[in-house]
Design brief:
Blueprint (H helix, E strand, L loop, with lengths): L1 E6 L3 E8 L3 E7 L17 E9 L4 E11 H5 L3 H17 L7 H13 L8 H15 L10 H5 L5 H9 L1 H18 L1
Parallel strand pairs: 3-5
Antiparallel strand pairs: 1-2, 2-3, 4-5
Helix pairs in contact: 2-4, 3-4, 4-6, 4-7
């Protein structure tokens, strides 16, 4: 998974979030140029396989194989783009570079893959669900017996969404409490 921004006239600085390597910041030389072979692979919300080489001062992306571009699937739904961006921004803020992230990566990837198919009525609950899971897997979430099912299940199930909706106030309070704790720990 990826997000990035322009760097210089033609290059792109990217944040890769991977299962084995955690968060890695790298540069794609000429990644914004029309003739770049990596241009399509280094777009925001892309899921794929990336080849990196450690340079003197930073990682360089030298190859990529695109699996799915989530942005292309949700670009006409601004609220889904916002949710995807906020989740990846939280990952960029909380995950240490190079930290192994198997379970966290799997949860976020699963969410991103299913994001395009989430009905608009369930989007807020699904966003709360992934926030709970991210904060839990990073160790910032206080245990709550009413929400344990949301943390144990995989995927975005109707049971989890109903649990979030039933305990909406408590869920939001717990997320805010955990996000506040992350601010204090930085």
């Amino acid at each position: 998974m990826i997000s990035g921004m322009g760097s210089g006239e033609r290059s792109r600085r990217i944040w890769l979030f991977g299962r084995e390597v955690g968060l890695v910041v790298g540069k794609v030389q000429a990644g914004r140029a029309l003739q770049s072979k990596l241009r399509n692979a280094v777009q925001d919300f892309t899921i794929g396989n990336f080849s990196l080489v450690r340079g003197k001062s930073e990682w360089k992306v030298v190859g990529a194989r695109v699996g799915d571009n989530i942005f292309e699937r949700v670009r006409s739904e601004p609220e889904k783009v916002r949710v995807a961006a906020s989740i990846l921004n939280l990952i960029k803020k909380l995950v240490e570079e190079g930290r192994e992230t198997h379970e966290l990566f799997d949860a976020v990837k699963n969410f991103m893959i299913h994001l395009p198919g989430i009905p608009a009525d369930d989007l807020k609950s699904a966003e709360c669900l992934i926030l709970l899971r991210v904060l839990h897997k990073l160790g910032f979430l206080r245990a709550d017996p009413d929400l344990v099912i949301c943390l144990e299940e995989e995927g975005i199930t109707q049971t989890s969404l109903t649990t979030i909706q039933t305990h909406k106030q408590k869920t939001i309070q717990l997320i805010n409490e955990s996000l506040h704790a992350t601010e204090m720990s930085k």
